[in-house]
Design goal:
By secondary structure, this protein is mainly alpha-helical. The protein has 4 helices and no strands.
Length: 100
């Protein structure tokens, strides 16, 4: 079954399973900054992941191509997996489907 939209929960699960290293880096960097801040920007963490990918020696074809549409999903997944940081990222209510 095709997900309802490009950045739905279902599409995120497929993307996350296909690219597990992205979440590993997200968790690593989120925990680093969480030890110093009360809250932070998930988008800033994504920029750090992109930077790490670019400077790690990966060629352009193997760099992480991460759409901003999944940032809120990664933030919510992190707060679900690490409930002690349940308010670390500010989130808004999401529509069920968007960005077809």
């Amino acid at each position: 079954m095709k997900p309802l939209g490009k950045f739905t929960d279902e599409a995120f699960e497929i993307y996350k399973d296909k690219h597990p290293d992205i979440y590993k880096l997200f968790v690593r960097f989120a925990l680093q900054i969480a030890s110093r801040r009360k809250y932070y920007s998930a988008k800033a963490i994504f920029h750090r992941i992109r930077w790490e990918s670019a400077v790690s020696g990966a060629d352009e074809e193997n760099e992480f191509k991460i759409s901003d549409g999944f940032i809120s999903h990664y933030a919510r997944q992190f707060m679900k997996d690490y409930p002690q940081y349940k308010n670390f990222f500010k989130t808004r209510n999401r529509r069920v489907t968007y960005h077809d």
